[in-house]
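Figure 2 data, in text form.
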Amino acid sequence: MKIAMIGTGYVGLVSGVCFSDFGHEVVCVDKDPGKIDRLRAGEVPIFEPGLQALMAKNVTAGRLTFTLDLAEAMAGADAVFIAVGTPTRRGDGHADLTYVMTAAAEIGLALTGYAVIVTKSTVPVGTNRKVAEAVRAANPDADFDVASNPEFLREGAAIDDFMRPDRVVIGVETLRARKVMADIYRPLFLREFPVVYTGLESAEMIKYAANAFLAAKITFINEIATLCERVGADIMDVSKGMGMDGRIGNKFLHAGPGYGGSCFPKDTKALARIGQDYSVPMQITETVIKVNEEIKRRMIDKIEDLCDGNMNGKIITVLGVTFKPNTDDMREAPSLTIVPALVGAGAKVRVVDPQGRREGEALLPGVKWVENPYQATQGAHLVVILTEWNEFRALDLTKLARKMETPRMADLRNLYSAAEVEAAGFESYRAVGR
């Protein structure tokens, strides 16, 4: 099969590379000349474990190429995937479909034979029908079908998620389109990974419903964590006890400073807006959004308490600023709320993050970037663990404490226990829900 992938951002690049590894011929197209030049040179513009090696392998095999020319990418394509950004629209919380609809119109103009136009981007219910209308408006004689194929990739584990998915969701309306999509995903079908076929609207809704549910699960355990602190319970024990119930499961029950990233914040806001548009308020989702912001502010209070109520002039070392480990993604990261609050309160903030500096330098003005935790904690009054990178899971706590002016720790990911931190020489330790 020949596939054209429009967009070389996170979803488009990972999907294009993985499809080429299935054995398909994939042409990735983007309007950014700089990005295409970097990709042709073998440079991956995002950090995703394993992606660079897999891309190089398939470029060398001749299955994967990059171009600025949409018509070139679409020539002879069986399927054209739209994998462009759908950011939250300013002012109203809706998903901004500008890039999607522009891509649809351009596809219509470039279409010369039958193809399935597949929306990989996360889009509100009804968007695929609008895509079809845009293609038809640009080219009334076009021969095509549309399909919805939402992505469920976790940053930091995207290749494994694509190659070993919990399920593949495909929304189609014709047998012709279903046959094309079945051929594209045949390698997964042969390995007995579930492929779920639905209508267009159901596929679009599945993506939003899944992300909203996971965001709710994270927010629920964070609220329980706050209550645990008040009543003397340990959220680690509570989460373990809850997660052993098969109806609940143990994933997404890790208390922390709130969710962030490219999906949960954007998709919960979009689902809330969809509910309002159809007069079916998504009250749980709306509350999740509100509580998640409150949780971030609670973390600031926790840090301030460890500074005896005054952060002015204090040296605070922050370990991790990306929204999760194994990614360089800073979108909606808790650090973007917490760190500016520390700087605004007069703290001298030092930041350590294995991959966050490239985006973080512009997003977190007023901080000092340092290479390693031990250098960053020299003379510090407080160390804050904000992202659970593996590099921060086995720190030499005694060495850390000896370097600090006042050895105190805010462990916002519960990587350590109070006993081991205090035994290492820390005078104060605060975790989440413990």
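Caption note: The first strand starts at residue 2 and ends at 6.
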